[in-house]
Each structure stands twice: as structure tokens, then as C-alpha cells.
Design brief:
3-stranded antiparallel β-sheet, about 20% helix, elongated, alpha+beta
């Protein structure tokens, strides 16, 4: 038994370390939660869709040929439901009724950002793409949201 002791120690120390790290991360790592739903639209409307005085504003004078729309009702909007982690299309009329807080930062300090992954070598080793929409806050960690659409911009955070 004594002659196998160094092998047992050499194999068990990394295992104990890995288990310790997993326990630490699951218990003590900072977590982040989202308390506000938000509205997004296509990034091609960046000069067209605004929030002024907590209400949606459409600058129809900025409609250009490349937008391929004639009226504000043709703009597509999506609502992210924070509680259910769902993302669905909603109508222009529904968005007009909402009170919105403008910007990428929510009223409680959570920031929404789109992260672009550029590491192609990782795919060779079976890594999953990290590209997507994330929320993060100061000393609160980071969380990926269940949003499959790309090239979107935030319109505003829904406030009561």
C-alpha cells in the first residue's frame, strides 16, 4: 500500500482541486439577475427609433430607401421577458403604449451588450460560440440571454 501512496496522492489532489473550484463557483460566485424587460429593434433603424420622455419616438424623416419601409408600423420590434427568459416579436402599437427607459443600461444598473466571438481556432477543439447578448453589472457577473436574433439594438427598458 505504501508504494502506491504517491500515485494515489498525485491523482486525488487535482480531483479535489476541481471539485473545490466547482463548489466555490456554484456557491460564492457573483450572480446577476435582470429585473426589467426590454425592447429591441433592428440595428438598421439606429437613426429612426428613439425614446423621448419615456415614450417611443419614430423619426419618419429618416426613412431612407435602404430601410425598405414606408411607415412606422412596418418596423419590427422584439420584447425580452426577463422572468421567463423569452424573446418574441411585438407590434408597433404595443410598444407605443409602454413607458421606456432609454439606453443600454437598465434603471438598476444592468448593462446589455452584444458580444462578438472571433476565435475560429476554438471550434477545432469543439468549443461553443460565445457570440450573443449578455447582461452584466459591476461586481455581479455576466449572464447570456436567450436571444437568437442578431444585429439588434436596444430601444429601451420597460418601466412602470
Amino acid at each position: 500500500m505504501k508504494k502506491y501512496l504517491p500515485i494515489i496522492v498525485a491523482l486525488s489532489v487535482p480531483l479535489v482541486f476541481i471539485v473545490g473550484v466547482v463548489i466555490y463557483v456554484s456557491i460564492f460566485a457573483p450572480s446577476i439577475s435582470l429585473n426589467h424587460d426590454f425592447i429591441m429593434t433592428s440595428a438598421r433603424f439606429d437613426k429612426t427609433v428613439f425614446v423621448v420622455d419615456n415614450k417611443l419616438q419614430i423619426e419618419e424623416d429618416n426613412f431612407e430607401d435602404h430601410l425598405r419601409i414606408d411607415r412606422a408600423e412596418d418596423i419590427e420590434f422584439w420584447k425580452y421577458n426577463a422572468e421567463e427568459d423569452t424573446f418574441k416579436k411585438i407590434t408597433f402599437e404595443e410598444v407605443k403604449k409602454l413607458n421606456l427607459h432609454p439606453g443600454e443600461e437598465s434603471p438598476d444598473g444592468v448593462v446589455l451588450e452584444h458580444y462578438y466571438s472571433s476565435s475560429d481556432i476554438a471550434y477545432l477543439f469543439g468549443a461553443r460560440s460565445q457570440e450573443g447578448y449578455y447582461i452584466h453589472g459591476e461586481d455581479k457577473g455576466r449572464k447570456r440571454l436567450n436571444i437568437d436574433e442578431q444585429y439588434l439594438q436596444i430601444v429601451g427598458w420597460i418601466i412602470n
